[in-house]
TrEMBL record:
InterPro entries noted in UniProt: Ribosomal_eL34, Ribosomal_eL34_C_sf, Ribosomal_eL34_CS, Ribosomal_L34e_arc-type
Database matches in PROSITE patterns: RIBOSOMAL_L34E
Pfam families the record matches: Ribosomal_L34e (PF01199)
Keyword line: Ribonucleoprotein, Ribosomal protein
Domain of life: Eukaryota
Protein's name according to its UniProt entry: Large ribosomal subunit protein eL34
Any one GO molecular-function label of the UniProt entry: structural constituent of ribosome
Family listed: Belongs to the eukaryotic ribosomal protein eL34 family.
Gene Ontology CC terms, in alphabetical order: ribonucleoprotein complex; ribosome
GO BP, sorted A to Z: translation
Length: 115
């Protein structure tokens, strides 16, 4: 007959937060180990890939981390990956250039219309 084990938590239901594994100790006893949920890595807000340089932890574990471990030293460090930040910068630069060109062309048109 199989050896019985006692649960360590009060929650008896087979839920995702209450997964358990029966482990045999060196003393020969069977004990229950409760298994934590797997953590997913934080994702880039634009493209959705896992952010490199930031550990994959459960939400509560980020509270114990220092600031330098939660971010990357860059603009949008903890929320966007480097290629997406580069794309944002180039897009903003090109939009700014386009508005300047429009302004110059509009100025030339008004000067040409008066003469």
């Amino acid at each position: 007959m199989a050896q019985r084990v006692t649960l360590r938590k009060r929650q008896p239901y087979n839920t995702t937060s209450n997964r358990r594994r029966v482990v045999k100790t060196p003393g020969g006893k069977l004990v229950v180990h409760h298994i934590r949920k797997l953590a997913s890595a934080p994702k880039c807000g634009d493209c959705g890939i896992a952010l490199p340089g930031i550990p994959a932890l459960r939400p509560r574990q980020y509270a114990t981390l220092s600031k330098r471990q939660k971010t990357v030293n860059r603009a949008y460090g903890g929320s966007c990956c480097a290629p997406c930040v580069k794309q944002r910068i180039t897009r903003a630069f090109l939009i700014e250039e386009a508005t300047i060109v429009k302004r110059v062309l509009k100025g030339k048109a008004t000067v040409g219309g008066k003469k």
